[in-house]
Design a protein that fits this description.
Order of helices and strands: HEHEHEEEHEEEEH
Strand content: 15-25%
CATH topology: Glutaredoxin
CATH class: Alpha Beta
Shape: elongated
Structural class: alpha/beta
Distance between the termini: 76 Å
Number of helices: 5
Number of domains: 1
CATH superfamily: Glutaredoxin
CATH architecture: 3-Layer(aba) Sandwich
Radius of gyration: 26 Å
Strand order of the largest sheet: 1-3-2-8-9
Length: 245
């Protein structure tokens, strides 16, 4: 009995120690995973953006035109926001907002240049709002401009906040004649730089001479475009520095 008693005690002590180690290991693992989640959280948007634009690589649109290829790294600077968040940034926030969508050919030409310009300007984050489904849809039917789909409430707020920078929106009939819709348009791609709710920079499209979004920008155009973007991003970065910088 004495021998078995000692063995039982050793077994019990061993089990207790094992359980304690298991519990400690579980706590450490939980803490480690929590930290991993906190570190990787910002990258989820970057991965989502990368996959969103890579989805159309090698594919063609309904007219047989091939989408420009977009190749991005996992650590790209894009962070998704919705239109309500975009309104808040424009009203009293600071940052750079990129308005676009993945099937827009000019957007696809612009995105890689946004990434490179952001690196050069040391811009860590670019807010991204996909405008594909939030805008109104208008057409010319029965001798009048008709709204076939209303834009979201926040979209119209965006038009109001960006009014000084946006162009009038025209639709055409079957003969190509243009008609004023009575509202402006948030075209894609558009980049807006904001500091404390004040717009300090605005860029629409790629370059004026880049009239076909399915064509790649040449070397000189890339240099010109990146200079424009770096200047735009730098305006925000300089505005981030307070008297204590």
């Amino acid at each position: 009995m004495g021998i078995f008693g000692k063995i039982d005690k050793r077994i019990i002590i061993g089990v207790v120690i094992f359980l304690l180690l298991l519990a400690v290991g579980g706590i450490v693992l939980l803490f480690h995973n929590k930290n991993d989640d906190e570190v990787s959280e910002p990258n989820k948007d970057a991965l989502r953006f990368k996959e969103d634009y890579a989805e159309l690589n090698g594919k063609e649109n309904s007219k047989g035109l091939k989408y420009p290829t977009v190749e991005l790294k996992d650590d790209n600077p894009f962070r998704y926001i919705n239109e309500e968040e975009a309104v808040k940034v424009l009203e009293n926030g600071t940052g750079i907002i990129y308005f676009g969508f993945n099937s827009c050919p000019w957007c696809r030409n612009l995105v890689p240049n946004i990434v490179e310009a952001a690196k050069e300007a040391d811009s860590k984050e670019i807010y991204y709002l996909d405008v594909m489904d939030i805008r109104s849809t208008l057409s010319y039917e029965n001798k009048k401009v008709t709204t076939t789909r209303e834009g979201s409430e926040s979209y119209y707020k965006l038009l109001e906040l960006l009014d000084d920078y946006l162009e009038k929106f025209y639709v055409t009939d079957a003969k190509g004649k243009k008609y004023d819709t009575g509202e402006k348009r948030l075209y894609a791609p558009t980049l807006v730089a904001v500091v404390d709710g004040k717009i300090v920079g605005f860029h629409e499209g790629t370059l004026k001479e880049h009239t076909n979004g399915y064509d790649a920008l040449d070397e000189d155009q890339v240099k010109e475009l990146r200079k424009i973007l770096v200047d735009l991003f730098s305006k925000v970065n300089s505005g981030l520095c307070s008297e204590k910088c």
